[in-house]
Write a structure and sequence with these properties.
heterodimer, A: about 130 residues, alpha+beta, four-stranded antiparallel sheet, three-stranded antiparallel sheet, 3 helices, about 30% strand, elongated, B: about 325 residues, mainly alpha
Chain lengths: ~130, ~325
Amino acid sequence: MEDLYILIGSAVAVALMVAVAAWARIARPIAALDPDSARTLLAAEFPDHAPTRTWIAADGAGLIARAGDQALVLYRLGDSWVARTLRWEDALKAPVRAGKVCLKLRDPAAPVAKLAVSGVNPWPPETNDEAIAA
Amino acid sequence: MTLDPIKPAFDPVTWAIPMFVVTIVLEIVLGRLGKAKATYEAKDTATSLAMGLGSTIVGGFTAAAIAGVSIWVWQNHRILEVPMTAWWAWVAVFFLEDLTYYWFHRIAHERRFWWASHVNHHSSQHYNLATALRQTWTGGVAGTWLLWLPLALIGFPPAMIAIQKGISLVYQYWVHTEAINKLPRWFEAVMNTPSHHRVHHARNPRYLDANYAGILIIWDRLFGTFIPEDEKEPPRYGLVHNLGDFNLLRVAFHEWMGIGKDLAGSRSIREVVGYLFGPPGWSPDGSRDTSASLKAKWRARESAKVAGAPEQIAAE
């Protein structure tokens, strides 16, 4: 019975601590990506890659960059970032659903990335740049 | 005075729960007031604390069996009689338990089967007191508790080992903070500290696989795994490949799922053994990164920078 009381007390305490954390608003400041911040983030997360072109999600909460035959994918989670790679060809073929390009990452730790697409910022990018062409 | 050698007189972790709550709230409030370095993201905090609560619940299912094995070894196979009331016995168990923890922790990072259980503790991209409570749900299954059996075999009573394990866990709680920078040099030399443990939680290649200490950092210095925190390179926390969401089941089981997926695609015994007991990131063709390969790439980049520096100066 004592263990049950400890468990219930702990659950109440967890709710309290989460509420205090939400109230405090002390998450890291995180702005929408722009070309400069995208470059900085790519350099930090993919130091051994040389991205040639970068597509930034419509809401600035993610990006897809091309580095050779690989797509470098970054997307926001809370106040942090998640990074993965996949084949560029697969990224180009990724479907757009409900205004988001859905990239299958084939990783149980991060199975899918969903990045916002808009009319002026479509996926795949409309460009003649041969770097984009598959 | 007599102490029960089987049933611990107290559980340090249970006793510490109120302290956990008060200090987490305090860290958040001090962070809010700008009086201490602390960042908390609500969903990340909820995940860490829910993992801690879940760990207590899940651990309850295996605790009796694990304690039973320890008691059986001590009752039937102990080599020495270690009295619980002797001061020297507590000193001895302090050092031996801490040494055991060092090797448990090292194996839990350097071999994938045990990393699968421990990885969730490192899955937050934040480093705060709540992160300390992001504990495993699969420790009992992973079997790392076996490493503590030699203490019972030597003759340390199970209750004594359990109390010392609890003391170690409580000690390790407070080092999960950015609010404390560096402590006096003598303390940093001997003890595990927030600075040393920040390095341990960092995903920067230079900091990988370092500072496994529980209470004493001397083991890392002794076995060559100590890396000091360099103020010029602040730690970036989390995993080499961070989790894609805050789903608790993913936090708890993603590496086990990854192992299952790899084993399903294995083509030889070598691959099975490599995927299970190789370093995290091991792959038959070396196409994935391990800590060692990430460090090698980092060293190569650093060397290239050094080699490029004189040319840059000349060009300027």
